[in-house]
């Protein structure tokens, strides 16, 4: 029997996102269909039309047909995507995400659940707890969804027996305890018959708890996390030039906290700081604040160079973690196993970085929670691993911020995994990064920004690293490149590392020599490069056999996109190269290729 909701105009405007999950054929879609029908949330005539279609085609009516809109879903009898449906109670409005239950569509289930505030986990009373029942429980825990109710469905198929319900509750509650998930309750229901969906059932007098709808209404909706430290991953930086509009707008969606004009903001990983000049939104009056959940933008009081992927925070509040080594808990969904010594792409907020597994601490069977040490992570398994990133990212730990601790893993342009950050770990560039953050926090920016200099000089500031083995002609190429650029009107300077070692770094050659002198040589050289690039200069540096680790130091300290690596002669280190040219006698062709590289990468412009 349908139960209509009266006085719709008086309904609260509060909304809550709920995901419904469970093993395939355990009746999730039927439960959703019942919620729609029993709350009177269907468009007028929709239920009657589907019943008539079923009768015309001699097909038994199913409440699942109310949301299984795709024809191939009805023919196969499985939900293959996360369908979003809307229904209302006297308490609030709901957006209910019906996530797939089939093991092949776990990725869709994760996508749907990641947008939810609470969850309904459906278990078939007749079939009992299955692998995906456990997997889904683990994934809800991994995604940080703590508001969960377990609906034991199809009680009509087991004669409404209390002992069947009790056995499922005991076993599944014990499992959920292991993944630190404490459900708000277990509810015996029948989606097909409507028992304990929107109203109490007359078939199960032994159950004294609320029906499903009342249990959902009892969930406390968390307010937007405006009281948490401000976090806004930078989505983009918009520059306007027409009609005298010279604004540069930092844009993104506020993950948590709030900001106002005049607040000092600090960007991580760079540590650069500025003040908010004014808030900006598209085609609307300027707001006086931006808070959690809002897509927003702001202009800066002091212009600084900020990139997509940085995280805007508020000065004086707890800062995020910044690291290139992370201990994480992840779930793997790729067809091929996740393995050591292979590059993957990690996306955390708007930031992107290549990543490799440094160590697999343990692999869990997500359905049994049995763990073992392995050298790979198979499909549908969970694991705790250490990831090493190609560059440091800013993030929070899982207990500090749900949105800023989540990440996904991409392989071959597909999302193949995801998880949460448990711990930031020391990495070899950490000491350099902390010194850069301290420097940038106290840096006094010029009134002339980098884009203004680029327009004036008709070039982009860049660091050109020319490296290779000894006696391969690096200096000859570097000086020829400097001369050619200068002759075309560019502001360029050549600096050999020896000029720094015997000048600025003379103290490092003291007796006994300073520990880790090479790393400090590179850091100081990078600081010089940073100053010259801030002045808009193209700096050409030569050094013997720079490594990937050296390049990480340069890129951490310099904070500019334009860092080019030209290798002269036979390759011998692990540094990624933008161009390789022959060694030996100077060749005009090598000079032309170097000029072409700078043109191709937008540092200089073709005449």
Structure report:
This protein has about 600 residues and is α/β, with parallel strands linked by helices. It folds into 4 domains: about 10-215, Rossmann fold, CATH 3.40.50.300; about 230-315, Beta Barrel (Elongation Factor Tu (Ef-tu), domain 3); about 320-430, Elongation Factor Tu (Ef-tu), domain 3 (Beta Barrel), CATH 2.40.30; about 450-600, P-loop containing nucleotide triphosphate hydrolases (Rossmann fold, 3-Layer(aba) Sandwich). The strands form 6 sheets. A 7-stranded antiparallel beta sheet has the order 7-15-11-12-14-9-8. Strands 2-3-1-4-5-6 form a 6-stranded mixed beta sheet, sandwiched between helices. A 6-stranded antiparallel β-barrel has the order 16-22-19-18-23-24.
- Cα distance spanning the termini: 78 Å
- Based on CA atoms alone, the radius of gyration comes out at 30 Å
Give the amount of beta strand, in percent: 25-35%
Strand arrangement, largest sheet? 7-15-11-12-14-9-8
- Helix share, percent: 25-40%
Q: Describe the biggest sheet?
A: 7 strands, antiparallel
CATH superfamily of the largest domain: P-loop containing nucleotide triphosphate hydrolases
Give the topology.
Layout: E1 15-22, H1 28-38, H2 46-56, H3 71-76, E2 83-88, E3 93-98, H4 106-113, E4 118-124, H5 131-142, E5 147-153, H6 162-178, E6 185-188, H7 212-217, E7 232-233, E8 236-239, E9 248-253, E10 258-259, E11 264-268, E12 273-280, E13 290-291, E14 295-300, E15 311-314, E16 321-332, E17 338-339, E18 344-348, E19 351-365, E20 371-372, E21 376-377, E22 381-395, H8 402-405, E23 406-411, E24 414-425, H9 430-442, H10 450-457, E25 462-468, H11 474-487, E26 492-496, H12 497-501, H13 517-534, E27 538-544, H14 548-558, E28 563-568, E29 579-581, H15 588-600
Helix pairs in contact: 11-15, 13-14
């Amino acid at each position: 029997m349908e139960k209509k909701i009266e006085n719709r105009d008086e309904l609260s405007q509060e909304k809550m996102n709920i995901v419904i999950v469970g093993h395939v054929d355990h009746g999730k879609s039927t439960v959703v269909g019942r919620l729609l029908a029993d709350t009177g949330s269907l468009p007028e005539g929709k239920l009657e039309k589907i019943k008539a279609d079923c009768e015309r085609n001699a097909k038994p009516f199913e409440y699942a047909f109310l949301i299984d809109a795709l024809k191939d879903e009805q023919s196969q009898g499985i939900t293959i995507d996360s369908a979003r449906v809307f229904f209302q109670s006297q308490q609030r409005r709901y957006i209910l995400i019906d996530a797939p239950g089939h093991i092949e569509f776990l990725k869709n289930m994760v996508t749907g659940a990641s947008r939810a505030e609470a969850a309904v986990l459906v278990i078939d009373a007749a079939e009992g707890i299955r692998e995906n029942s456990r997997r889904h429980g683990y994934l809800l825990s991994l995604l940080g969804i703590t508001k969960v109710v377990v609906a034991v469905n199809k009680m009509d198929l087991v004669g409404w027996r209390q002992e069947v319900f009790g056995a499922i509750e005991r076993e599944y509650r014990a499992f959920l305890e292991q993944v630190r998930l404490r459900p708000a309750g277990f509810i015996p229901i029948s989606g097909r018959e409507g028992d304990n969906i929107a109203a109490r059932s007359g078939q199960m007098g032994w159950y004294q708890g609320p029906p499903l709808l009342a249990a959902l209404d009892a969930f406390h909706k968390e307010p937007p996390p405006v009281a948490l430290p401000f976090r806004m991953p930078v989505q983009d930086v918009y520059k306007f030039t027409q009609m005298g509009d010279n604004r540069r707008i930092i844009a993104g969606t506020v993950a948590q906290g709030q900001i106002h004009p005049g607040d000092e903001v600090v960007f991580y990983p760079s540590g650069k700081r500025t003040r908010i000049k004014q808030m900006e939104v598209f085609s609307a009056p300027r707001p006086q604040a931006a808070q959690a959940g809002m897509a927003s933008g702001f202009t800066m009081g002091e212009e600084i160079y900020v990139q997509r992927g940085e995280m805007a925070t508020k000065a004086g509040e707890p800062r995020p973690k910044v690291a290139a080594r992370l201990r994480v808990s992840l779930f793997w969904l790729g067809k091929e196993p996740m393995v050591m010594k292979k590059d993957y792409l990690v996306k955390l907020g708007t930031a992107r970085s290549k990543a490799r597994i440094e160590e697999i601490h343990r692999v869990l069977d997500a359905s049994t929670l049995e763990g073992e040490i392995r050298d790979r992570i198979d499909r549908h398994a969970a694991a705790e691993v250490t990831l090493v990133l190609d560059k440091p990212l800013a993030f929070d730990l899982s207990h500090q911020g749900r949105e800023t601790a989540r990440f996904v893993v991409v392989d071959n342009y597909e999302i193949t995994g995801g998880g949460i950050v448990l711990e930031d770990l020391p990495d070899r560039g950490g000491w350099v990064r902390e010194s850069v953050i301290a420097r940038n926090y106290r840096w006094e920016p010029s009134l002339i920004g980098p884009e203004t200099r680029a327009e004036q000089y008709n070039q982009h500031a860049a660091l050109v690293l020319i490296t290779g083995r000894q006696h391969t002609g690096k200096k000859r190429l570097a000086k020829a490149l400097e001369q050619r650029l200068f002759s075309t009107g560019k502001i360029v300077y050549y600096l050999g590392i020896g000029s720094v070692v015997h000048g600025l770094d003379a103290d490092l050659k003291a007796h006994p020599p300073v520990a880790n002198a090479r790393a400090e040589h590179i850091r100081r050289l990078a600081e010089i490069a940073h100053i010259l690039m801030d002045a808009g200069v193209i700096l050409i540096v030569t050094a013997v056999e720079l490594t990937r680790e050296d390049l990480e130091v340069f890129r951490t300290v310099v904070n500019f996109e334009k860092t080019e690596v030209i290798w002269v002669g036979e390759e011998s280190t692990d540094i990624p190269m933008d161009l390789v040219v022959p060694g030996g006698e100077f060749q005009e062709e090598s000079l032309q290729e170097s000029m072409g590289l700078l043109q191709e990468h937008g540092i200089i412009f073709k005449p």
